[in-house]
Amino acid sequence: MTNAQLTLIQIDNYGPWTVTPEPRREVDLQTLQSRLYADLSQLIGNREGYVFFTRFDNMVAVTNGLSLSDHALVQESVGNRYPVTVSLSVATGTSPIQALEDATELLQDAGSAQDHSRREILDGRTIDEEFRTDDDVQIAHFDVNDMTGNYTDEVNAFDSFIHIEQGYAELMRYMREAHDALSFFVGGDNVIAVCPNMDESDYEDVIEHVEETVEVELKVGVGTGRVPQTAGMDAKHALETCRATGSRIEFE
Length: 252
Hints:
The structure is a single chain. The protein is 46% helix and 22% strand. The protein is an alpha+beta fold. The strands form 2 sheets. Strands 2-3-1-4-5 form a 5-stranded mixed β-sheet, with helices on both faces. The protein has a 5-stranded mixed β-sheet with strand order 7-8-6-9-10. The chain is globular. The mean pLDDT is 94.
């Protein structure tokens, strides 16, 4: 049984800050957001976790193996580097979506995202070491079949983007609604999902649904591990097996 630890990362008072004392240039805001994501990806990635950018002002991290003290150090580092602060809430559960909902509720109970007095909240709970296992995290790495041959080298870049966007949007929606998984676009034609204990028939269901709904063909590699990075690397190796063998689903 999986037991995901999810962290919601939210920039404090970000909306009002972007227009105070007057509206800031969008290029500067985009630069800040992208640099913050890059730093968080490294800070948490160095501790074997994963960060996904979602809306940029809100990010989601899979943080199995990180303690609340680790979270505090990440929070402190952001506060030292940026003109904005972040709040972090941590929750666990066999269902990733339930863990994220619990983490979200913690921050909402602490105050509005646009409340200037709500700063650097750190709340929640992590998985105690005695309850951790080598199967806590299941990561699925999805990839579009022959993206380069069918799209990148054949149609213009924007139409290619539209097609892939439709594919990953339907994948994210269906994985969440049908399987309580959280899926995140990570660039190119790749989507990484943190999943409950899904089996081959579950992934077959997802792939068939996306193909039937938006005509995007997928393959997926699946890995499990004690920490997100281990599960993610196993998923990448499994995906390479898909490419080598022509299969649609592989477990590592």
